Amino acid sequence: MNLKLFKPLFTLAVAVSLNLAAQNDAPKYSYTEAFKPFFYMNNATETRSASGQPGHNYWQNSADYVLNASLNDVKNEISGSAEITYTNNSFDNLSFLWLQLDQNLFKKDSRGNAVVPMGGSRNGAHGQDFDGGYTIKSVEILSANGKNLKINPKYTISDTRMQIDLPQDLKSKGGVVKLIINYSFVSPDYGSDRMGVEPTKNGKIFTIAQWFPRMCVYDDITGWNTLPYLGAGEFFLEYGNITANLTVPANQYVVASGELLNPKEVYSSDQNKKWDAARNSEKTVIIRSAAEANAAEKNSTATKTWKFKIENTRDFAWASSSAFILDAAKINLPSGKKSLAVSAYPVESDGNAAWGRSTEYTKSSIEHYSKRWYEYTYPNAVNVAGNPGGMEYPGIVFCGMSSKGADLWGVTDHEFGHNWFPMIVGSNERMFAWMDEGFNTFINSISEQDFNKGEYYTPKPLQSMAFAFNSDQMEPIMTAPDNLKERNLGFLAYYKPSAGLQMLRENILGEEKFDKAFREYIKRWAFKHPTPEDFFRTMENSSGEELNWFWRGWFLNKWKIDQAVKNVSYKSGDFTKGAVIKLENIGQLPMPVNLEIKFKDGTTQNVKLPVEIWKRNSEWTFEVPTTKEITSVQLDPKGSLPDANVSDNTFKVDGNSVAEKVDLKQFIGNFSSKEIPLKIVTTVENNQLMLQATGQPKIPLDYEGADKFGFSVAGIEFQFSKDRKGFTLNQGGKKFEFTRD
Ligand SMILES: [Zn+2]
């Protein structure tokens, strides 16, 4: 799913950072707490190895579906049957089954509706006065444990779950039950930002998901996973093969998860030729043009049935519309296999500034992730323009039809990144959103650099997000999405876990070790159900590094990173004899040290120290064998760590040579703004202008010339007026005016 929190929060970074930044009254760093043993809560089992791989008796149940459904495009109603073949590979006999009835979220009296606050939510039916949910017409067991039965079992519906009592236990280790459920539901217009119906000039766009009764996961961790669908928590699903026969008005075009089995029946021979051309084309081929979409009939009483099949999948989604422009291009996979990038969008979204490049984006994303992490397994990858802002399904995603340019690239890349997490690596999204959204946001950050030589890439040093990562207002990452404030989901499920992997890769393990371990995790758990411990154990076992301190600090707790340079001196007071640097670890989350020494002659030297210096110390003094005079020592010069207080990260040895040229006293004062509720005080210390918001730590500003000061790690500038009566605070183009009180 897509959350566009980044930009608005980024522009307010200053306001928030100065309001929420590090509290200085935190307890002192305890190294025994950071590195204490017995991190893992569970020992190895026969299903999950201590090394993080599936155990020697790992099992997983499977669910295959044959889905027949028809769409009434006037009533927005789907009616159908789901024939489910469920295989119990567990060691347990099962006397009942649990299924997910996600559409019941849209019943007026659902638990999900009950938890929508008065201020609204992106979940639920989004203000539509709507009483949706399933009409279950029949439940029939066709066979169980190899015996034909044809009986109607007792079933109980409780919110978004259905329990079916079995006439006899489903046998362990391979028992198979076949059942068929007849149902219907009316689609909400805007279904929790994940599905819906959007009117366009040339007809409605139906984006259909969470639409058929699906098996709950039965596993070795909790048995039946029956948490209800409340909105924020996404899905946890079994793997299997799905066939879908979708009957829609004859003027509509259907795109879906998996391969279309009857192209000759649903496309003209000319369109079929264009599909064949696209399969061999690096460039996007138009299959159905804007002119065709404009000229097509708007209503049809006749119907067509579109037949699809997808293998080894955890879900199936589809979209149907008379309004679709369709285009496609070949996807090249590392093994030499091919897949197909497809886009379906209305004329409103057409054009190269918008969806005209969707197929190019799709192709690039799938090729990138396949090359770097694990090869894509589905026959096509379809991007559909609809009203969900961005939502992922196996082989198909729905993105906002008004998305354009960098936004469309970003959301397309994000939703297809989900094909790796959670479509390939099938973690429990309802419990651990960070394992899909966070891991995906992380792989997106690398894909973004790769696409078209960084066309849409903007570096975002983690230091610039420190205000959020260090906020005391947020829950720990290891909090289920339905258990945390909705406004915090963007940080806790997306950006903070992604930043965790980025630090693990760039600051702790290094790219080579990290990439090898992360690939190993994906390979081990492809089409399986890993837990957080399986991930942590795999990363430690593959890299050979103890990481319990990092898992504890970043994922389980809200420990802060805060390092400081306490002192720089010369041996015997003589710089030709070497320098002595004293560091302090203040935050409870220790990190390896990377610091930059600047010398008076303009040269620099980098020093790296392992995290082990913090295993029995909170201060560390070491010698740098140098013969040159030092001007400054700076921790983390590139801002790659979200240090909670950067004002103590730089130690200046002999003042700021640039600052000598200006009289810093002119910039001292108390300032306030009509635009944001912040009081700012500037002072001069050690020949440097310091800025402080009321009650918050000071940050050092560097003079950049022409009355301008910068705080470069957060990308903030302060442009003073000629008369010094105020300044303009500029962050990423967002400006706030401050005047002297
Ligand atoms: Zn997402």
Automatic annotation (TrEMBL):
Q: Tell me the leader sequence span.
A: 1-22
Gene Ontology biological process terms, A to Z: peptide catabolic process
| Positions of the Peptidase M1 membrane alanine aminopeptidase domain | 407-554
One of the entry's Gene Ontology molecular-function terms is: zinc ion binding
Q: Which Gene3D superfamilies match?
A: Neutral Protease Domain 2
Pfam families given in the database record: Peptidase_M1
Q: Which UniProt keywords apply?
A: Signal
Listed under GO cellular component are:
cytoplasm; extracellular space; membrane
InterPro entries attached here? Answer: Peptidase_M1_aminopeptidases, Peptidase_M1_dom, Peptidase_M4/M1_CTD_sf
Q: Which PANTHER family match?
A: PROTEASE M1 ZINC METALLOPROTEASE, PUROMYCIN-SENSITIVE AMINOPEPTIDASE-RELATED
Its protein name is Peptidase M1
Lineage start: Bacteria, Pseudomonadati, Bacteroidota, Flavobacteriia, Flavobacteriales
